[in-house]
């Protein structure tokens, strides 16, 4: 966790896990699901609790304060990284362009350039998203 209180690394993973969880989660459950040592999860939960971001309940921990996460978008109970949305946007654009090419049955250099650019953009954002995890 950074000095200014912004979540990063393991603390961010734990916070997102709790944010997506519909129920309170215990330390062992979080550790098992995230593949982390119990001691690490316990340490970060205590830090998150001190900051007021999570609270301890009788059944485990839950989010106490919803934060605006810099690189993430919260849709319902799902937390999605912005690169995932960018990748899907460009993939949709490429699919739409491919459909237009198929329907018109004509390929010109402009359409090829758009297809290549959108597929590359989708691929780059997808790879960057995978590197972050």
Could you describe the 3D structure shown?
By secondary structure, the protein is of the alpha+beta class. The chain folds into two domains: 9-63, Winged helix-like DNA-binding domain superfamily/Winged helix DNA-binding domain (Arc Repressor Mutant, subunit A); 74-132. The protein has helices at 9-20, 27-34, 38-51, 82-104, 109-132, and strands at 54-57, 60-63, 72-75, 78-81. Helix 1 (9-20) packs across helix 3 (38-51), helix 2 (27-34) packs across helix 3 and helix 4 (82-104) packs antiparallel against helix 5 (109-132). It comes from Thermofilum adornatum. Residues 12-56 form the HTH iclR-type domain. The chain crosses the membrane at residues 83-106, 112-130.
Provide the descriptors you would attach to this structure in a database record.
133 residues; alpha+beta; Arc Repressor Mutant, subunit A; 2 domains; two-stranded antiparallel ribbon; two-stranded antiparallel sheet; WH_DNA-bd_sf; ArsR-like_HTH
Termini separation comes to: 16 Å
Helix content: 55-70%
Radius of gyration: 20 Å
List low-pLDDT spans: none
H/I helix tally:
5
Q: Classify the oligomer.
A: single chain
Could you give a short account of the major beta sheet?
2 strands, antiparallel
**Order of SSEs:** HHHEEEEHH
On the 0-100 scale, what is the average pLDDT? 89
What is the molecular shape? Answer: elongated
- Which structural class do you get from the secondary structure elements? alpha+beta
User: Domains counted in the coordinates: how many?
Assistant: 2
GO molecular function, one term: DNA binding
Protein name: HTH iclR-type domain-containing protein
Domain HTH iclR-type: 12-56
Transmembrane segments: 83-106, 112-130
